Amino acid sequence: MAQEIERKFLVKGNFKPEVFKSTRIMQGYLSSVPERTVRVRINGEQGFLTIKGKGNHSGIRRYEWEKEIPLNEAEELLQLCEPGIINKTRYLVKAGDTIEIKENKKGSQRYKEILEATAGNMVPEWLEADAENLKGTVKELPAREAIDVPVDEMLIVELYSK
Fold first, then answer.
1. Given this model, what pLDDT does residue 43 score?
2. What is the 3-state secondary structure (H, E, C) of the chain?
3. Residues 53/90/23/30 CA torsion (nearest 10 deg)
4. 69, 94, 96, 118: which is deepest, by most CB within 10 A?
């Protein structure tokens, strides 16, 4: 059973000239019940169906199952989704870029619980963390060997801007 470790970051400032790749993403939810969400996503030219379970008490780990589906089927399933289709661009950053939690989210109980639960132990070697200011600098892009948890590489870090 795969486990998702949620690590999302908002990149601030004029980072787009530094981006080396971007991908358009459209997604919607067939079910948004917290105990089990069912998401349809189009990532570039690929379609995916994802089922996620309820998160643990800290909210950073949860069951996730994902299968690639034909693009035309993903497009059809998006028509059945709940209102509020999300259309965003994912930007890939490089070593030297700074990432941080959105200012209006820094005081949230969720991040306080995450910091308490991890005590700074979940910071990977390739990321220099500033826990006090909830930001970090990408020291280097991670090699597969640097990923010390049993997860799918696609789920480790999601960098995006809406």
1. 94
2. CCEEECCEEECCCCCHHHCCEEEEEEEEEEEEECCEEEEEEEECCEEEEEEEECCCCCCCEEEEEEEEECHHHHHHHHCCCCCCCEEEEEEECCCCCEEECCHHHCCCHHHHHHHHHHCCCCCCCCEEEECCCCEEEECCCCCHHHCCCCCCHHHCCEEEEC
3. 30
4. 69
| pLDDT tens sequence across 101-117 | 777 777 777 777 777 77
What residues in the chain have per-residue pLDDT under 50? 153, 155-162
* pLDDT value of position 69: 97
Neighbours of 54 (CB within 10 A): 12
Q: How do strand 135-138 and strand 46-53 relate by DSSP bridges?
A: unpaired
Residue 157 is predicted with a pLDDT of 43
| Catalytic residue chosen out of the listed positions 29, 63, 111, 160 | 29
Q: Which amino acid would we find at residue 1?
A: M
pLDDT at 35: 85
This model's pTM is above 0.85: no
| Active site annotation includes 111 | no
As given in the structure block, the two tokens for residue 59 are 């909210």
